[in-house]
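I am still learning, so would you mind making up any protein sequence you like and the C-alpha cells describing how it folds?
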Amino acid sequence: MEIEELKKIQQECAKKVIQRDDFEKLITVGGIDLTFEDIKSNPTKAWASIVIVDINTLKPVYEDVVEGLVDFPYIPTFLAFRELPLMLELYQKIKIKPDVYFIDGQGVAHPRGCGIASHFGVATNSVSIGVAKTKLFGYYKEPEEKRGSYSYLTYKGSIVGAVLRTKDRTEPVYVSVGHRISLKKAIELVLRTSIYRIPEPTRLAHNLLQKVRKRLY
C-alpha cells in the first residue's frame, strides 16, 4: 500500500474520532502494550498484552497475551499499520472488556489526527486514551515538577494533548484523546491510575510482556 493511501486512511479515521465523554461507567481500565522479537526486522514475531485493573484499587482483575507475526515495516507516524492487527487479535480474545483502554502511543496528537490509540478506539468503538512516553507532535511548555502538573500540547493554535507529570520530578507522559473521551477526563484518569511515571494498566502490561519473553528465551 502506498504512503498516500495510508495517509488517507488516517485522515478518514480522524474524522470519526469522538473527543467528548461518551460512556456510562468507568470501573475498569485496560492497558495494552506490544513487544517485538526483533524491532528492526520485518516480518518479526511479536506479542501484545493487556492488563485490566480496577480503578479504585489499581489491582489487576484480568490479563492476557497473544503472539503473532508482524509484517509491516516500521515507518514513523504509521505505527498503527504495524501494531494494530495484533492488538485487534488480542481485543477479540479477551474475555473481559474494560471500560477504557490505555494505549502505549498517540491518539489525536498525531500529524493526521489519528495515532494508534485513535485507530484502536475507532476500529473497536472503544473508549481509548493515548499515553505515550515521548512526544511525536506539537509544542508545549514544560509543566511544573509536582505530580498532577500539566501543560497543553498544541499545534497551530489547537490543543492536541497534554504533557502530564504523573510523579514528582519525573519525566512527564504525553496524553491525548484516543476515542469517545474528553482530554480533561483522559488527564484525570491517567493521573488517577498512576503510582509511578507510567500508569498502572500499561506499566503492568509491559511487565507481563517482559515475563513472557524471559520464559521463552
